[in-house]
Write a structure and sequence with these properties.
four-stranded antiparallel beta sheet; about 220 residues; Immunoglobulin-like; 2 domains; alpha+beta; rod-shaped; 11 strands
Length: about 220
């Protein structure tokens, strides 16, 4: 009996850990993280199967432990527990997942600038190395230059954008980065900048991107 309790206790703990990892995956997926847990949650079928598996493990474990305390009503306890515990766990995890998603940042940063090279200051031409850091496609529609006072001093011409067709996006953009990819983009500005410190930021509607400082000698 002692070993039986330990076994069912282990099953219960394993199921709880499974469900916690599923909730973590929900958060990581909500912020577009490149992570195996986020990938699990991003797949509707795998996420649903994981939820059923975790719920089933916790239910079996709790029933197994509880049956030792209801020796005279084992069958009744098993039926009632199966009817009450499983739906309670199932819908509690779904409700918690919704709260986790709501609490996640609405516009997570999708790209990282790894290097900025000044090709020409007059007119300004920058070569920018960009890395996609999320589980979804990243769209870059423009680049903006700020001075030390956080004032916009230059911006790429929207007419320079070209049409891209991707499974997640169709429209005009300067660049499209699939999940986890890297690309070097040359940004051309119709503005000459004086010597000083500046910041280049990437921009697109509905997506947040990285920014990086650079200096014109």
């Amino acid at each position: 009996m002692k070993h039986s309790k330990l076994l069912f206790g282990f099953i219960t703990i394993f199921g709880i850990v499974f469900l916690i990892l599923l909730l973590i995956g929900s958060y990581l997926d909500a912020i577009d993280s490149v992570n195996i847990l986020a990938s699990l949650e991003h797949s509707t079928q795998l996420g649903f199967l994981s939820l059923l598996c975790g719920t089933g493990l916790v239910t079996v474990g709790m029933i197994g432990i509880g049956r030792h305390y209801f020796k005279n009503h084992k069958k009744l306890f098993t039926v009632l527990s199966g009817v009450l515990i499983s739906p309670l766990i199932f819908f509690s995890v779904i409700f918690t997942s919704v709260l986790v998603i709501i609490a996640a940042p609405m516009f997570p940063i999708r790209t990282e600038i790894t290097q900025v090279t000044v090709i020409d200051p007059d007119p300004l031409v920058l070569s920018v190395d960009i890395k996609a850091i999320t589980s979804r496609t990243s769209i870059i529609e423009s680049a903006i230059i700020y001075n030390d006072n956080n004032t916009i001093v230059a911006q790429t011409d929207f007419g320079d954008r070209t049409r891209f067709e991707h499974k997640d996006y169709t429209g005009l953009a300067l660049a499209v980065l699939p999940a986890g990819s890297e690309i070097t983009v040359t940004f051309i500005f119709n503005t000459a900048l004086e010597s000083g410190n500046y910041i280049v930021g990437l921009s697109s509607w509905g997506w947040a991107h990285d920014s990086s400082p650079f200096t014109i000698p």
